[in-house]
Amino acid sequence: MAETLLSLSKVRAGYGNAMMLHDVALELPEHGSLALLGRNGVGKSTLLLTIMGYCNMRAGDVKWRGKDISRLPPHRRAREGIGWVAQEREIFPSLSVEENLTTTARPGSWDLDAIFKMFPRLKERRRNMGNQLSGGEQQMLAIARALMTNPSLLLLDEPLEGLAPVIVEELIHAIKQMLDSRQLAIVLVEQHTEIALELTEDALVLERGAVAYRGKSAQLREDRATLERLVGLRVATTA
User: Fold this and answer.
1) Domain ranges, residue 51
2) How many domains does the chain have?
3) Is 235 helix (H, G, I), strand (E, B) or coil?
4) What is the pLDDT of residues 199-209, one digit of tens each?
């Protein structure tokens, strides 16, 4: 049985005095993959921010390989091996693609050669500034920059949002490669529910800041009624 990489227990967290998460618990094994689903505003991004240490935790704990990191600041969590790709991408616009990558680099198998093999577009644009990239290329760069920290866990917040279908396909292929490499675990927040469930082994659905469902992604994919109720996925009907 795989060792537990990340675990949350009875976490209550939010912003200031406003609590967005209520008694949230989860476990993620080494090299695991989790789809984090739910309607807009239920706390998915807040949960990622809590894992990274940006939110105000009122109760519970966050453990990393069995060690309580609930009070560690975000930069210490990054050093422990937690990588984060924010919904806003947050690349450095005045640095070149290569500079964006090397400025965050840490020793490990994810180096420039590995990144450029996964994202040939970035190799072609390596001398371009961050603000000269398309939205899809910026998303690739944001993911690649996080990989250059050689994390054991990668948190992806809506990586496919607003992108052209051809870019979506490239990013899906990249995520599959990451998981197939067995080098890291992934928590994926994604509105494309079918894609998220196809990519991951496990699923967790939030509703009003609390866990409403946890189980295998494949099982949830087949449970159309639960998907429609909790995520809002419309089930096709026949005449």
Assistant:
1) 1-81+152-161+185-233
2) 1
3) coil
4) 999 999 999 99
